[in-house]
């Protein structure tokens, strides 16, 4: 399964970005092979609206089975839920730490968005 | 005649000027509250509500049986109101602008449209004043849609005073566009001057003739007056910084009723607006 992390950086020691829709990059980590690729979210950072929805589509298309990030709003959550992507919220400072917590089973799958939408 | 009361900066006194100007009319007049994100002109009147209309836009509804997940609608939408992942798109009506483009580009006719409420327009009658007030629903971003709904209810045979939203973004432009005249209300402070410049640029871009009202004169400095003189912009009225005005406002009172000596100020404002529109550059000042 592929797990997506939000980050401003491009490697496992980079800080985890707490925001989902307007993060700079997605690091897509393959749990089977330990390989990863980085997908830019740059075009979405200044979207007037719907950044979370766009970001959700991007990671669904990248084959994500899970998302590890700080916060996920209601619209993005609705897309991810419909696509069967599991969401895990964490305050881990780096991707490596978040990955370690995931592998240790210390991250709980979110049942709902953990922040309010910007319009509602 | 349509006169929009606008300003770059918020809190300079647009609503005060609008309601007092409407109040000094001795013939029927329309007052349109176009500040639809926080309408407040109705607080100053005791008239009765004569209508309440729901405003809706058309948002897509996708027939999953007809949709083949081609994503053309998703790619067309510039507002991210449709989301897809190789199956029938999800619709986010609160992001939709109601353009109908998704239904147009769908090759399979899978999209029909349904109403989605974005706000309401209420009409009140208080003696000679017909107040048409727009109110955007909480959680909706389509302020301009409500502004247009308010303006569509305007009668052309009666003068209209439009209370514009602050700033120079879409809802303010939607209010100013098509007005015969704009009154830009400012205050003699650095912020007032800076934002007046933005409002002036907007009015010029829209080719709406305009003049300035300086409110709370006595605070700040003379730079707004100097700017207007330099730019050839008429100062239609100066309202002094008078604590009694703020006290009356805080009680929801109209200045010209609570402080009758100010009635002449707003009568003068109307004379100066009509004089400027009539090509007369000699602006009267309060004696």
From TrEMBL, chain A:
Q: Does the keyword Endoplasmic reticulum apply?
A: no
- The segment(s) forming the Dinitrogenase iron-molybdenum cofactor biosynthesis domain are 14-103
Q: Which InterPro entries match?
A: Di-Nase_FeMo-co_biosynth (IPR003731), DiNase_FeMo-co_biosyn_sf (IPR036105)
Which SUPFAM superfamilies is this protein grouped with?
Nitrogenase accessory factor-like
Keywords, comma-separated and alphabetical: Nitrogen fixation
Asked if the keyword Disulfide bond belongs to this entry, the reply reads no
Q: What is the designated name of this protein?
A: Predicted Fe-Mo cluster-binding protein, NifX family
Show the taxonomic lineage.
Bacteria, Pseudomonadati, Pseudomonadota, Betaproteobacteria, Rhodocyclales
Automatic annotation (TrEMBL), chain B:
According to the UniProt entry, its GO molecular function terms are:
iron-sulfur cluster binding; metal ion binding
Matching Pfam families: CbiA, Fer4
4Fe-4S ferredoxin-type domain span: 58-82, 87-116
Superkingdom of origin organism: Bacteria
Print the keywords alphabetically: Iron, Iron-sulfur, Metal-binding
Gene3D superfamilies given in the database record:
3.30.70.20, P-loop containing nucleotide triphosphate hydrolases (3.40.50.300)
Put simply, this protein is called: MinD superfamily P-loop ATPase, contains an inserted ferredoxin domain
């Amino acid at each position: 399964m592929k797990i997506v992390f939000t980050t401003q950086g491009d490697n496992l020691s980079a800080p985890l970005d707490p925001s989902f829709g307007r993060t700079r990059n997605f690091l897509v980590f393959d749990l089977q092979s330990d390989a990863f690729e980085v997908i830019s979210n740059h075009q979405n950072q200044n979207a007037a609206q719907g950044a979370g929805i766009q970001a959700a589509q991007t990671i669904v298309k990248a084959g994500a089975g899970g998302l590890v990030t700080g916060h996920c709003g209601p619209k993005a959550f609705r897309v991810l839920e419909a696509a069967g992507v599991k969401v895990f919220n964490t305050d881990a400072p780096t991707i490596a730490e978040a990955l370690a917590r995931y592998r240790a089973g210390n991250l709980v799958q979110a049942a709902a968005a953990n922040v309010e939408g910007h319009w509602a | 005649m349509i006169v929009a009361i606008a300003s770059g900066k918020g809190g300079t006194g647009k609503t005060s000027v609008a309601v007092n100007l409407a109040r000094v009319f001795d013939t029927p007049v329309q007052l349109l509250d176009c500040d639809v994100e926080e309408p407040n002109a109705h607080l100053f009147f005791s008239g009765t509500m004569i209508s309440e209309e729901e405003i809706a836009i058309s948002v897509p509804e996708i027939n999953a049986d007809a949709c083949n997940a081609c994503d053309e609608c998703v790619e067309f939408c510039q507002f991210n109101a449709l989301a897809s992942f190789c199956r029938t798109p999800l619709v986010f009506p609160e992001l939709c602008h109601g353009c109908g483009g998704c239904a147009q580009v769908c090759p399979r006719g899978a999209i029909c449209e349904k109403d989605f409420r974005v706000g309401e327009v209420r009409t009140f009658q208080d003696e000679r004043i017909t107040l048409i007030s727009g109110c955007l629903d909480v959680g909706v971003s389509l302020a301009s849609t409500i502004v247009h709904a308010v303006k569509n209810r305007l009668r052309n045979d009666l003068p209209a005073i439009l209370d514009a939203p602050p700033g120079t973004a879409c809802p303010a432009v939607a209010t100013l566009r098509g007005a015969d005249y704009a009154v830009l209300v400012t205050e003699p402070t650095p912020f007032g001057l800076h934002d007046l410049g933005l409002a002036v640029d907007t009015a010029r871009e829209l080719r709406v003739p305009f003049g300035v009202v300086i409110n709370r004169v006595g605070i700040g400095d003379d730079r707004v007056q100097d700017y207007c003189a330099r730019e050839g912009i008429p100062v239609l009225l100066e309202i002094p910084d008078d604590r009694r005005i703020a006290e009356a406002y805080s009680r929801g009172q109209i200045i010209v009723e609570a402080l009758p000596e100010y009635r002449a100020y707003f009568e003068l404002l109307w004379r100066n607006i009509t004089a400027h529109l009539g090509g007369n550059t000699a602006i009267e000042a309060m004696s």
